[in-house]
Amino acid sequence: MLLHRLASVLRWMVRRKRAEHELDDELWTFVDMAADDRINEGSTPHEARRLAVLQLGGVELFGESGPAGADRWGRNRRPCRCGGIAPVWVGGRVYERATSPRALGFGLVLAPTALAALRQLQVAYGTRGEAQARRCRSLPANEVFTQCPRNAAKDRPVAGGTPARWLGVSFPPEHGSNEV
Amino acid sequence: MNKLDVPQGTLELMILTILAREPLHGYGISQRLTTLSHHEFHVNPGSLFPSLYRLEQDGKLKADWRATENNRRAKYYRITAAGRRQLEQHRERWDRVSFAVRNVLEGA
Predict the structure, then answer these.
(1) SS3 assignment for B79-96
(2) Burial of A23: CB neighbours in 10 Å, binned 0-12, 13-18, 19+
(3) Which of A6, A54, A109, B42 has a 20 to 30 Å separation from B103 between CA atoms?
């Protein structure tokens, strides 16, 4: 039961990360296509790309949103249990589920393993980087484009925030209602 | 002139209507929406992609990655049978609402 729950949590984390990557790919495609259109209208490639990124992270967020009390994905948003506090959260969930001393001991043994696995996942998915990467990820789109190092081949910020972050959307934790 | 906000609850109706004609990627949907509304509506990606995600999760849309005409890789969405059913329901409801609102405005 306990192992099943832990495996379920880990599976969910991996699945969420994969979906977040897919969303970012999709948003970059949006930027690429918007930049193509601007180039066709006469902008230089660099200017076209800068404007396309700004368009993506622009302030004009129109009124379409999810139901009352839910985020734009239509789900009730829960606080992010990510990064360094994730093992604490996992431990807490284990504690909630398992009240017997035996299960609690089992959870305490598993916690360091979960912590190590999480670090490996963070490294594998590039969410654990140097201070600059962290700083860049928190910057708005226009500042990322001017202040962070860029990949010349793709003309994308190397350590900058993702389009999803600029838009202020995070991947929904679980599937929920579709009513709008 | 300022562009109009997409009325609450109608974005999914418009997405499903656009995709009922042909499969499109997110940027294509955004462009088509702007064109069909005679540049009155502009939908921001921050609203568009969450709606696409919801529709896909609910089985109203299917998506697959493939190359565009410009040889870019993009996620194309197409409507499913369940999506078409939802589109019919949405349209019927929208027709009733718009008919009722027009009656009120003209009768006042």
Answers:
(1) ECHHHHHHHHHHHHHHHH
(2) buried
(3) B42
* Mutation for A interface: B16, B33, B54, B61, most A CBs within 10 A: B54
Number of domains in chain B: 1
Structural domain containing residue A54: 2-58+90-167
Residue B3 lies in a domain: no
Residues 6+ apart with CB under 8 A from B49: A23, A26, A27, A167, A169, B26
ipTM confidence score: 0.84
What pTM did the predictor assign? Answer: 0.61
In a domain, A95, yes or no: yes
Other CB atoms within a 10 A radius of the CB of residue B99 amount to 10
What's the distance, Cα to Cα, between the start and end of chain A in Å? 36
Q: Express each pLDDT in B35-90 by its tens digit.
A: 999 988 888 888 898 899 999 999 999 999 999 888 889 999 999 999 999 999 99
Among candidates A63, A167, A180 on the partner chain, residue whose Cβ is nearest the Cβ of B45: A167
Q: In terms of CA atoms, which chain A residue is nearest residue B56?
A: A178
Contact B41, B4 (CB under 8 A): yes
Structural domain includes residue A63: no
